[in-house]
Specification:
Elements lengths: L3 H15 L3 E7 L5 E3 L2 H8 L4 E7 L2 E6 L3 E5 L4 E6 L10 E8 L9 E7 L5 E5 L3 H4 L13 H9 L5 H6 L9 H11 L12 H20 L36 E5 L2 E5 L8
Parallel strand pairs: 2-9
Antiparallel strand pairs: 1-7, 3-4, 4-5, 5-9, 6-8, 7-8, 10-11
Helix pairs in contact: 1-7, 4-7, 6-7
C-alpha cells in the first residue's frame, strides 16, 4: 500500500497537470469505488468544479475544488495518472475517469485524471467538509504538532505494542509497514516494546527517526513495490524492511522477520533489543 512518501510524490507530480483545470465530467466505472455521495449526485456536483489545490493528508490524495473536496485513498493497488489526450479508451481496471478542460495556467490540452485500481479496494469521497473523512486521523508526522514531547506523552497514554500503535492512523497519520520498520530500526526500538515503556530520550530518537525516514522517502520519490507503485528508489536504501536474513547495515547481525498484528515486521535483534 502506498504510504505517506508515495502519496506525497504522486501529489507533487500531478499538481502541475491539475491546478486550474475544470472538471468537465466523470466516468464512474466501478460504483463501489465511490464511498460518498451517490453516483448520481457525484456526477452532478463534480461537473464544472475547478481544481484549486492539489495536496495530501496522511495517505489520502486531495483535490480542493471550487465548492467541494475530492478525496482518494489508493489502498492496496490504487494508482493515479494523467492522460494528455482529448479522448481515451478506458483500461480494464480503470475505476474513475475525470475529464479535464484546459486552463488559464498553461494547461492547454484537454486531459483525463485516471484512477486505476486492480483490487478494487480504493475509495473516493466528494464532500464539502473533508473533516467528515479525515477528522479521526492523528497528527501529520512532518507537522509542527509532532514533537518529541507530544510523542512521549501520547505513547505513555497507551499500553500497546509499539509497531501496531505506530500503524494506527488515529495515532499518527501516514505511517505504514515500510516506514514504521525503518523508523524503529533507526531509533533502536523493538517493534514488540510496550509503548508506555518508551523513555523521554527514546521518544525523542523515535520522533527524529520518523521524520528523517519520511523525508528521505520523499526525497527518493518513495519506494517502488509490487506492480502498483513505480518510479521511486527508496527500496534500494532499506535498512531492515524486506531484508530478512541479510546483514544489518549497523552491526552486521542478520535481520529477522516476525509477524506483529498480522503484518510482516523486520528488525535487527542486536540493535533493537527487547528489554
Amino acid at each position: 500500500m502506498p504510504e505517506l512518501p508515495e502519496v506525497e510524490t504522486i501529489a507533487r507530480k500531478l499538481k502541475p497537470h491539475l491546478l486550474g483545470r475544470t472538471i468537465q465530467g466523470a466516468q464512474l466505472r466501478w460504483q463501489r469505488t465511490l464511498a460518498f455521495p451517490s453516483p448520481t449526485k457525484f456526477r452532478e456536483r463534480i461537473r464544472g468544479q475547478e481544481i484549486k489545490e492539489v495536496t495530501r493528508r496522511a495517505k489520502y490524495f486531495i483535490l480542493r475544488l471550487s465548492d467541494y473536496s475530492l478525496l482518494i485513498h489508493l489502498r492496496m493497488s490504487g494508482d493515479l495518472s494523467i492522460k494528455e489526450e482529448s479522448k481515451i479508451k478506458p483500461e480494464k481496471h480503470d475505476r474513475l475517469i475525470l475529464s479535464l478542460l484546459s486552463s488559464s495556467l498553461g494547461n492547454s490540452t484537454p486531459s483525463h485524471l485516471v484512477f486505476n485500481d486492480t483490487r478494487k479496494f480504493g475509495r473516493v469521497w466528494l464532500t464539502a467538509d473533508p473533516e467528515e473523512v479525515l477528522g479521526t486521523l492523528g497528527p501529520e508526522p512532518l507537522s509542527r504538532r509532532f514533537t518529541p514531547a507530544w510523542l512521549h506523552t501520547a505513547l505513555q497514554g497507551k499500553h500497546r505494542l509499539l509497531k501496531p500503535l505506530l500503524l494506527d492512523q488515529t495515532f499518527i497519520a501516514g505511517l505504514g509497514n515500510i516506514y514504521t520498520d525503518e523508523s524503529l530500526h533507526l531509533a533502536k526500538l523493538h517493534p514488540l516494546a510496550s509503548s508506555d515503556s518508551v523513555t523521554v530520550s527514546q521518544a525523542g530518537l523515535l520522533q527524529q527517526a520518523i521524520c528523517a525516514v519520511l523525508k528521505e522517502g520523499i526525497r527518493r520519490n518513495g519506494a517502488s513495490f509490487d506492480w502498483v507503485y513505480r518510479g521511486g528508489e527508496y527500496q534500494n536504501h532499506f535498512r531492515v524492511y524486506d531484508r530478512a536474513g541479510k546483514p544489518c547495515p549497523v552491526c552486521g547481525t542478520n535481520i529477522e522477520r516476525i509477524i506483529v498484528g498480522q503484518r510482516s515486521t523486520h528488525f535487527c535483534p542486536r540493535c533493537q533489543r527487547l528489554s
